[in-house]
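Design job #97: recover the sequence.
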């Protein structure tokens, strides 16, 4: 009998284990990219600030926390008056308590936590806690805060629906005077052209001029321009800019309207070499004058030798004048012996350390030697 073959064993059709592992490893980079993109989106959010207290009096302390800031960024924390989160800090940092501000550096995740003393700002409330970057890309955030016991006042009214924008490149005009070379405050005029992109005219707009030196935050000052910019129109505006006395180096001039920076202009200020020249001359002239005065005092108080005030120093080669007296007859002619005696006496008086015996004399008899014919 012929043996019939049995049914064949079924083959495995599922995926092999090593193939599935390879597919999982291939998907890991894609998962990492998706996770990084999600983290980047979370980090790109607007910076946020929170306070431990919404109201506190002068002398108190609050804790300021923040997130979504640039990693390892230097921030400045200030309490500012005449400010709201919607309109920003009106008047710039001149409305803030700058002397009691605090600086903080964010961590690698862009977060921070810092204690801030409560003090009264120079302007009335409404007040905010103003947090802004000091270096790098500009970022800021304001949180409403009430300083208990501080006066309040209404904010200045906005000028309708007018919106100003700079239409041309800003420039600084003006030259330095001779006084600036000796330390006077450098001054220029910031010239720019603005256009009204809104539907209402802008009358007497108030701009802010900020000057920054190095890594420091700009110091803002208000500058009001008298005039009106009609809707759809434009105007050429000049605003004065002035630095402190003796300023030199690289400065950055910023123009702000409302809470928007319209333009920035670099300004290189030369060193006031006249001040340096003045100090160099002062260091040379004063010691020389003190030396001359000291030598005059020493010459005045030093002791004089005895009899020096009685004898006048004569020029060599001049004969002394014969003494004239009230006698009736003419004076006798001076003999050689008298002249020699007078000369010896004068030399003895001028040089007190010689004695008359030691002074050389041609009239003194020479000693003779015994036995000499």
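Job complete. Output follows.
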């Amino acid at each position: 009998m012929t043996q019939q073959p049995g049914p064949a064993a079924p083959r495995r059709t599922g995926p092999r284990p090593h193939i599935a592992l390879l597919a999982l490893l291939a998907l890991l980079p894609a998962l990492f990219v998706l996770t990084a993109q999600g983290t980047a989106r979370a980090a790109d959010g607007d910076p946020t600030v929170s306070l431990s207290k919404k109201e506190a009096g002068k002398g108190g302390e609050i804790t300021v926390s923040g997130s979504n800031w640039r990693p390892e960024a230097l921030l400045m924390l200030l309490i500012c008056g005449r400010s709201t989160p919607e309109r920003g800090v009106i008047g710039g940092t001149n409305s803030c308590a700058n002397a009691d501000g605090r600086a903080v550096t964010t961590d690698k995740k862009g977060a921070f936590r810092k204690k801030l003393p409560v003090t009264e700002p120079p302007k009335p409330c409404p007040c905010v806690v103003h947090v802004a970057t000091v270096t790098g890309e500009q970022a800021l955030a304001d949180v409403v805060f009430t300083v208990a016991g501080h006066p309040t006042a209404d904010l200045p009214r906005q000028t309708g629906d007018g919106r100003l924008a700079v239409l041309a490149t800003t420039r600084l005009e003006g030259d330095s005077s001779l006084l600036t070379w000796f330390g006077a405050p450098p001054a220029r005029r910031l010239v720019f052209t603005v256009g009204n992109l809104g539907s209402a005219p802008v009358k007497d707009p108030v701009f802010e001029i900020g000057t920054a030196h190095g890594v420091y935050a700009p110091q803002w000052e208000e500058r009001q321009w008298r005039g009106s910019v009609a809707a759809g129109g434009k105007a050429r505006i000049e605003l004065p800019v002035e630095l402190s006395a003796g300023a030199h180096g690289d400065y950055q001039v910023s123009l702000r309207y409302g809470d928007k920076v319209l333009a920035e202009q670099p300004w290189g200020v030369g060193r006031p070499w006249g001040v340096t020249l003045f100090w160099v001359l002062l260091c040379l002239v004063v010691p020389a004058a003190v030396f001359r005065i000291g030598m005059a005092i020493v010459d005045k108080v030093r002791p004089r030798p005895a009899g020096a005030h009685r004898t006048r120093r004569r020029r060599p080669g001049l004969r002394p004048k014969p003494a004239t007296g009230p006698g009736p007859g003419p004076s006798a002619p001076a003999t050689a012996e008298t002249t020699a005696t007078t000369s010896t006496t004068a030399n003895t008086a001028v040089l007190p350390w010689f004695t008359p015996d030691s002074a050389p004399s041609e009239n003194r008899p020479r000693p003779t030697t015994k036995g000499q014919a």
